[in-house]
Design a protein that fits this description.
The structure holds 2 protein chains of 2 kinds. Chain A is an all-alpha fold. Chain A has 14 helices and no strands. Chain A has one domain (55-267): MetI-like (MetI-like fold). Chain B folds into 2 domains: 2-120 and 224-257, Periplasmic binding protein-like II (D-Maltodextrin-Binding Protein, domain 2); 121-222, D-Maltodextrin-Binding Protein, domain 2 (3-Layer(aba) Sandwich). In chain B, strands 1, 2, 3, 4, 5, 6, 7, 8, 9 and 10 form a 10-stranded mixed sheet that branches. The A-B interface holds A 117, 121-123, 138-139, 217, 220-224, 227, 235-236, 238-241, 243 and B 78, 80-81, 83-84, 105, 147, 149, 152, 154, 174-179, 187, 190-192.
């Protein structure tokens, strides 16, 4: 991924950009910028401080950070091995597994949340068994983490898998011939090779988890301090008689995500 | 205290048939009124509280028979969601709210004409069919073995539930505060929650999937539903006809058949 990026940069030196794509690109950028401008325009700046420092908002923000980071950790622990298997192991049903992995990206998140309930809820497919060993996921913070990981993990898996496919396998083979074990090769050759896609995938996954709404509210419910993440809190507030505070909070969510994405992109995320 | 949904649903079906027969008989007499209605055309968009889903879908069939050229579109959600959408400029012709407070926000914003009360609804506790956990009333909802789900206080049903629980002196720890009354009911019908406070009409709408535990009048809260024509709507005549239909005999019968109480 990073190779093609560099190649594109050197090939297109100093040629004047054609008009048509630039105009369309401008329209595309406006599509992203206009809603943001709307939020900035409607934000009640005088009330921003009390809105941000309210106990409820603080709880929602903290919970969002905890759940999105946990969901990313879960996605890394499960998703990196999955991406490795998908990229390096030939087996029957690989394309089926790939389709399954992409499923949460096309599934409406509310449907994803319902599906999680039907599988892991009290009367779900394996819910009663989980119940017996004391695991109750619906209406719990762990449930919110799981819902976020379900929706966000595909971003990690697909990015890392693409990175593994394009990485130089010759280096791994060389390390093997020199006597390194499989685990050692993975740790000190493969992982450093796919570091950019690992970081890119991880950040995309985290950003998606941070903004997750539909699956979370359906599977984990909405309870302050426990499952009411920032997107849920913002939604509840938007419909209250004081939507202004919700707009301020949305902007905070946006600013946090933008700051992280921008700073990471410049340093590490060449693959993005 | 408890009753299964089925017998009552059958009763509702009977009442419904009676209402339809009465409506059919009545339409012969009011010929002039019918003519003016059948001249209506265009589309009418009705924003209605989630709890009105079943009753209003029946009104749709009645109105379709009377004014076939009028096409009716519903948007059902929490009243507070709909009010916010109208404030933000959503195209609605009629707004039917589950409480006066939410309607008042639109009255204050001069977005609706004078609202009229068209139905009342009482709270009930929705539990699994047959009430396996033996929920007897509001004070039982504090039991730690029960998973209780309520609505967020910004939702009319949630604010009524809080009032009722306060009257019963019950300090409940809900597991979730859902964003509309149907979502709370769904948590019970799917088996994820043991109890939820919803409207009596919702328990009836759930049919055999839920049973209702009645809340005594002293603790119960009666919700009044106002309806109003939205000033910014595109089809004023159609909107007025819909409001009239809801307030008419057949409209009221349909609401009653779905577990609502008459407005007065």
């Amino acid at each position: 991924m990073s190779e093609t990026h560099k190649a594109g940069r050197s090939a297109g030196v100093r040629e004047r950009a054609p008009t048509a794509p630039v105009v369309v690109a401008g329209a595309a950028a406006a599509l992203f910028a206009l809603p943001l401008a709307g939020l900035l325009w409607k934000a009640p700046w005088s009330k921003a401080w009390p809105a941000l420092t309210s106990e409820e908002a603080g709880q929602a923000l903290r919970l969002s950070l905890v759940t999105s980071v946990s969901a990313t950790a879960l996605a890394l622990a499960l998703g990196v091995p999955l991406a490795w298997v998908q990229a390096r192991v030939e087996y029957r049903g690989r394309s089926l597994v790939r389709a399954l992995t992409t499923l949460p990206m096309v599934l409406p998140p509310v449907v994803g949340g319902t599906a999680l309930l039907l599988a892991l809820g009290r009367r779900g497919l394996v819910g009663p068994q989980l119940d017996r060993v004391g695991v109750h996921l619906p209406f719990s913070t762990a449930g919110a983490v799981l819902a976020e990981a379900f929706v966000a993990m595909p971003f990690l898996v697909l990015t890392v898998e693409a990175g593994l496919r394009t990485s130089d396998r010759g280096l791994e083979e060389a390390a093997r011939t020199l006597g390194a074990g499989r685990w050692a090769v993975f740790r000190s050759v493969t992982l450093p090779l796919v570091r950019p896609s690992l970081l890119a995938g991880g950040v995309l996954c985290w950003a998606r988890a941070l903004g997750e709404f539909g699956a979370t509210i359906t599977f984990a419910g909405n309870l302050q301090g426990k499952t009411q993440t920032l997107p849920l809190f913002v939604y509840v507030k938007l419909e209250s008689s004081d939507p202004g505070s919700a707009i301020v909070l949305s902007l905070v969510l946006l600013a946090v995500s933008l700051a992280v994405l921008a700073s990471l992109r410049d340093r590490w995320l060449r693959a993005l | 205290m408890t009753r299964a949904g089925r017998p009552r649903a059958r009763g509702a079906a009977l009442a419904l048939t009676a209402a339809l027969v009465a409506g059919a008989c009545g339409s012969g007499g009011g010929a002039s009124g019918d003519r003016s209605r059948s001249a209506l055309s265009g589309s009418v968009t009705v924003f209605a509280a989630a709890s009105l889903t079943e009753a209003f879908n029946q009104e749709k069939a009645t109105l379709a028979a009377r004014a076939p050229a009028l096409s009716l579109t519903y948007s059902f959600a929490g009243s507070q969601t709909l009010a916010q959408q109208i404030i933000q400029g959503a195209r609605a012709d009629v707004f039917a709210s589950a409480d006066d407070k939410t309607m008042q926000r639109l009255v204050d914003a001069k977005l609706v004409e004078a609202p009229r009360a068209f139905a009342r609804n009482q709270l009930e506790i929705a539990v699994a069919p047959g009430n396996p956990k033996h929920v007897g009333g509001l004070s039982d909802l504090v039991r730690p073995d029960l998973v209780v789900v309520l609505e967020d206080p910004s939702v009319p049903a949630g604010s009524y539930s809080q009032q009722a629980l306060a009257r019963a002196g019950a300090r409940v720890r809900p597991r979730s505060l859902e964003l509309d009354v149907k979502s709370a009911l769904a948590k019970v019908t799917s088996g994820e929650a043991d109890a939820a406070i919803v409207y009596a009409s919702d328990v009836q709408a759930a049919g055999s999937k839920a049973s209702g535990v009645t809340i005594p009048t002293a603790q119960n809260v009666v919700a009044t539903y106002p309806i109003a024509v939205v000033r910014t709507g595109a089809n004023h005549a159609g909107a007025a006809a819909f409001v009239q239909e809801v307030l008419s005999g057949s409209g009221q019968a349909a609401l009653e058949a779905h577990g609502f109480l008459p407005a007065s």
